[in-house]
Specification:
The chain folds into 5 domains: about 1-150, Galactose-binding domain-like (Jelly Rolls, Sandwich); about 160-250, Sandwich (Immunoglobulin-like); about 265-555, Glycosidases (TIM Barrel, Alpha-Beta Barrel); about 565-635, Immunoglobulins (Immunoglobulin-like, Sandwich), CATH 2.60.40; about 645-745, no CATH class. Helices cover about 20% and strands about 35% of the residues. The chain has 12 helices and 44 strands. The radius of gyration is 28 Å and the shape is globular.
Length: about 750
């Protein structure tokens, strides 16, 4: 097979023109490309979702006995491929590889047209989620020139060879299966296993029986971050002396288990999985990334010390899975069956799961297939939802009996639901301490679950809180400061990392990412829960809290470097380090040395004039500055966006509620509960213009008990500011103040 990159010189039109050959030329672009790099990141939930067209001319160059394929590694979210006006392929699903044999439609000069559509519909996932659905051909496109007898290119976008290693004592048994097409009966397959430059096993078999077994003696295990050793399998398809096609795939030999009491076990040893989730997008680029972008992401994750990544909420680039193999990351891979179950979407969940498993089967990094994420937003008892999960669970085990299945469960889903019994293991998405409740509730939940179901493995698939460049010496839940985010993660680390039965923990999220419907924290269109900023330029303090627990590279970090101006006479300074002892100096004068088994060191620092802070830990050193000021620096306080409501506009009569009060406190009174339930009904009817009404509200949410419980820690004002996330029209300042006036008439307890 000859593979040629075909990314350059496309004509892009923001119009649905299908296979029409007389369409006007558009803007010239090179791939990868998205049309939502700007409007999908600026807030308002108004980014363009519709059909666009990519065109390019192809000269016929294939030989007489060659066939020509076009390979697309990612087109979001549906695509129609036309060659010379003739529709040859349709593909639903924006994150997987798909191919089309275009040989029969080719003339001497050919117009290739790809119509791409990310418009809302009721059958292709995702349709509701807290991230931007970037439209475009945002991964590589290649031309493939192949022999008519070849490794199969039509088998769900897979590599054509599946390798299944099984560790047996000091050795490994390697089962190999090839998928071939166009054979005539005289072909054979030669499978060779290489360890670097050394050939360690070889077997030949007729192509009519394209499966074989090999054995590696004294196998070198793939052993996570400490030793991610990879082998290469080379498969050659021949007919007599003629080589027809070949493939090379890498694989690793490892065993793993997930124990309800001991957590994750790799190669027979306890291996606690502590890491992050990853969204892939970047400023202006969206999902149209370069390989350098992927490497930078992996370098940052490795620097933090993580050993696992949840690749959410869709299939990621094959290159990133390769990096996970090479760096020893243990991976959770999933499809975008998320938030809102669609009765017309079952076929799409099956096709996306089939592609995910077949295309990624050989990656040793992957240990679980994720069936869905927060899919019970509207309840867990829907019979169609349950059947869909059983089908996906069985499908995963049919396609791959070596890995387990899992789901990411929305916080308010009860632990007794039948839905939780379908996959092999589960994880919960909890935001106690951010979306309601307080941080202490996280550990309490897992203790209760473990006591109730000691034989079920449970993990934490999402947890986090948002932080921008806002600062305070008195952090509070919901203030979006870097200081509260640091406090939150300190507390979560202490609770989660000390419970060995939790099989995996994944911070939400490694990087800030775009969610165009969001209007939070003073910057619209973004989810700021990342440990690292959207542009990858700044590591928030919480990044170093994890580095202190997970990384073996000695370091020390002073928190609050962006918080220079401080009004208090004595200020608290936090230092993170993985060293046993830290000393803090102020203008060269030592405040003493401290030890902390939790890696978090707290110092009370006199705040006078300009101060240079120096932290010393072993051979490591870090420095920062603070300055005494008389009045609080307003540059550190969160700025509202949209229709701004100043604090002095909000009337707060003593003994009565206002929009500054928490929903849980208001719900605790009879009149308050009635008012909020009435308000919820009104808001659920306030759908986006042009939006489609869904069961339970325009975005599929229902104001059930679980939803109310999760939102109890929100102030009414914060809840109203988040309406765009649920697909609802934001309220005007006048509407919000009218709600405040009505609350002012309801007495507190």
């Amino acid at each position: 097979m000859k593979k040629m990159n075909w990314n350059e010189g496309w004509q892009f039109s923001k119009a649905a023109v299908g296979g029409a050959k007389d369409a006007a030329p558009g803007e010239q672009v090179d791939l990868p490309h998205t049309w939502n790099g700007t409007d999908g990141q600026d807030g308002g939930n108004d980014y363009y979702r519709g059909a666009c067209c990519y065109r390019k001319t192809l000269q016929k160059h294939n030989k007489e006995d060659e066939e020509v394929y076009l390979e697309f590694e990612g087109v979001n979210s549906s695509a129609d491929l036309y060659v010379n006006g003739r529709l040859l392929a349709h593909h639903d699903g924006g994150y997987s590889t798909w191919r089309c044999n275009i040989t029969e439609a080719l003339g001497e000069e050919n117009e290739i047209c790809v119509q791409v559509d990310n418009a809302p519909n009721d059958h292709v996932y995702p349709q509701m989620a807290d991230f931007t659905f970037y439209g475009g051909i945002y991964r590589n496109v290649s031309l493939l020139y192949v022999n008519r007898t070849r490794f199969d290119l039509d088998y769900f976008g897979g590599p054509g060879v599946a390798v299944t290693p099984t560790v047996e004592g000091k050795d490994a048994r390697i089962a190999v299966e090839a998928f071939v097409s166009g054979t005539t009966g005289g072909e054979s397959l030669l499978f060779t296993v290489w360890d670097g430059e050394e050939k360690v096993a070889e077997v030949q078999t007729p192509a009519s029986a394209p499966a074989a077994g090999l054995r590696i003696e004294n196998v070198h295990l793939w052993n996570g971050r400490q030793d991610p050793h990879l082998y290469t399998l080379k498969a050659v398809l021949t007919h007599g002396e003629r080589q027809l096609d070949e493939r090379e795939v890498r694989f690793g030999c490892r065993s793993f288990a997930i124990d309800p009491e001991k957590g994750f076990i790799l190669n027979g040893e306890s291996y606690p999985l502590r890491g992050v989730s990853r969204h892939q997008d970047r400023p202006k680029k969206g999902n149209a990334l370069s390989r350098a972008d992927h490497v930078e992401d992996m370098d940052l994750i490795c620097e933090m010390g993580a050993n696992t990544i949840r690749l959410a909420h869709y299939q990621h680039d094959q290159y990133f899975y390769d990096l996970c193999d090479e760096r020893g990351m243990v991976v959770w891979a999933e499809i975008p069956y998320i938030s809102q179950h669609m009765e017309n979407g079952r076929e799409n969940t099956i096709s996306q799961m089939t592609e995910l498993v077949i295309q990624n089967y050989n990656h040793p990094s992957i240990v679980v297939w994720g069936l869905s994420n927060e899919i019970t937003m509207n309840g867990a008892a829907n019979p169609d939802l349950l059947e869909n999960h059983r089908i996906l669970n069985e499908l995963c085990h049919e396609l791959d009996n070596t890995r387990l299945t899992t789901v990411a469960v929305v916080s308010m889903c009860g632990i007794d639901e039948e839905y939780l019994t379908i996959p092999d293991v589960i994880s919960y998405n909890h935001y106690f301490g951010w979306y309601g409740g307080d941080t202490s509730m996280n550990g309490e939940f897992f203790d209760n679950f473990h006591a109730r179901y000691p034989h079920r493995a449970v993990g934490m698939s999402e947890y986090g809180c948002e932080a921008l460049n806002w600062h305070t010496s008195n952090p509070e839940q919901g203030d979006y400061t870097e200081e509260y985010q640091a406090y939150y993660h300190e507390e979560l680390i202490k609770q989660l990392f000390t419970r060995p039965f939790i099989w995996a923990t994944h911070v939400w999220n490694m990087f800030d990412f775009a969610a165009d419907a969001r209007a939070e924290g003073g910057e619209d269109g973004m989810n700021h829960k990342g440990l690292v900023t959207f542009d990858r330029k700044y590591k928030k303090d919480s990044f170093y809290a994890y580095k202190a627990w997970l990384s073996h590279e000695p370091f020390v970090h002073i928190c609050g470097k962006r918080y220079v101006d401080r009004v208090e006479e004595v200020t608290k300074v936090t230092v993170y380090s993985n060293q046993p002892r830290v000393e803090l100096l102020v203008n060269g004068e030592s405040l003493g040395k401290k030890e902390s088994p939790e890696h978090f060191f707290y110092f009370d620092v006199p705040n006078r004039g300009e101060s240079v802070l120096t932290a010393l830990a072993g051979e490591c050193r870090d420095e920062s500055h603070i300055r005494k000021v008389d009045t609080f620096n307003e540059a550190y306080r969160m700025k509202e966006t949209g229709d701004v409501i100043n604090w002095f506009d909000i009337s707060t009569p003593e003994g009565y509620f206002s929009i500054n009060d928490k929903m849980g406190d208001i719900m605790a009174t009879a009149r308050g509960k009635l008012f909020l339930l009435e308000l919820g009904g009104i808001l659920m009817k306030k759908k986006k213009s042009g939006g489609k009404e869904q069961e339970g509200g325009p975005a599929g949410f229902s104001m059930n008990e679980g939803m109310i419980k999760m939102m109890s820690g929100f102030s009414v004002k914060r809840m109203l500011n988040m309406l765009g996330t649920a697909g609802l029209e934001p309220l005007t300042a006048d509407e919000i103040l009218d709600i405040n006036r009505k609350l002012n008439k309801i007495k507190k307890k």
